[in-house]
Amino acid sequence: MKETLKYYGPAILWALFILILCCVPFGDVSGPSLFFPGFDKLVHCGLFFVLSILYCYGSIRKWQTRSIRIEIAMKNTIVLISYGALIEMLQKYVFTWRSGDWNDLLADAIGGCMGIFGVLLISNAINHEKS
After folding, report:
1. What is the pLDDT of residue 26?
2. Does Repeat show up as a keyword for this record (predicted)?
């Protein structure tokens, strides 16, 4: 457990932050009182983008590599999408003042995949430049 916190501590803290934000009653967050239509989806995408970068950073540190391997990226994608699905299920069945939404899960998955793709792209570019 201590080793997990050593590598994935920032990602775990960000995941807890996401959980708190997604389970606090904000009223109708998808209503017209927000900045623009779809703002909620943009927030979901951004939160999971940051989470995926932190999670990949922990994986790179744990496996002591200069880039993330494709199998680790696939595992990270599955973990991130599962976490997004867990949050949506909690919103639907436990935190009844919020509503679980498939579109939120899609935004979570897109944000997570964007972050993982960015880490793959940047780490491969850095490693190509060094060689």
Report:
1. 72
2. no
